[in-house]
From TrEMBL:
<keyword id="KW-0812">Transmembrane</keyword>
<feature type="transmembrane region" description="Helical">
    <location>
        <begin position="126"/>
        <end position="145"/>
    </location>
</feature>
<feature type="transmembrane region" description="Helical">
    <location>
        <begin position="69"/>
        <end position="90"/>
    </location>
</feature>
<dbReference type="InterPro" id="IPR006750">
    <property type="entry name" value="YdcZ"/>
</dbReference>
<keyword id="KW-1133">Transmembrane helix</keyword>
<feature type="transmembrane region" description="Helical">
    <location>
        <begin position="35"/>
        <end position="57"/>
    </location>
</feature>
<protein>
    <submittedName>
        <fullName>DMT family transporter</fullName>
    </submittedName>
</protein>
<feature type="transmembrane region" description="Helical">
    <location>
        <begin position="96"/>
        <end position="114"/>
    </location>
</feature>
<dbReference type="Pfam" id="PF04657">
    <property type="entry name" value="DMT_YdcZ"/>
</dbReference>
<keyword id="KW-0472">Membrane</keyword>
């Protein structure tokens, strides 16, 4: 199978998992008394799953390469905390579609900025009309989902 197509399918599946994650953690938040507690449980389960995967794949971290990373490269888990807590909190208030649509809009706006400036080591891809229009259409989608 074409590696690009395989990558695209994997990302679509991951997006679907994001849509499942939001209401799952929202339900968990009710049972464990807060979105922060739900995120803690979610990350504990995720950490266990990642540990099993790492053992199964027999991956070995390159400690020297990890030590050489800039400080911001260690912050990925913090972004995940913001994402999971915000989703668990927002779903009961906004619904799944609105929550996920707003998250995608936020992802796209920041993604355009990161691409444009080549920030955090990503390849530089300057803004152009097509990219801005694509994000504008998603934001229009947020408005439509909200008004429906």
């Amino acid at each position: 199978m074409n590696p690009t197509l395989l990558s695209m399918i994997a990302i679509i599946i991951a997006g679907g998992a994001t849509a499942l994650q939001a209401p799952t953690n929202a339900r968990l938040a009710t049972a464990v008394a807060s979105p922060v507690n739900a995120a803690f449980v979610s990350f504990a389960v995720g950490t266990a799953a990642l540990g099993i995967m790492a053992l199964a794949l027999q991956t070995r971290p390159d400690i020297q390469a990890a030590k050489a990373l800039p400080a911001w490269a260690w912050a990925g888990g913090l972004y995940g905390v913001v994402f999971v807590v915000a989703a668990a909190w927002a779903v009961p208030r906004l619904g799944v579609a609105m929550t996920v649509t707003l998250m995608v809009a936020g992802q796209l706006l920041l993604s355009l900025t990161l691409d444009h400036f080549g920030a955090l080591g990503v390849p530089r891809q300057p803004l152009n009309l097509g990219r801005v229009a694509g994000v504008a259409l998603v934001i229009a989608g947020v408005v439509l989902v909200r008004r429906s």
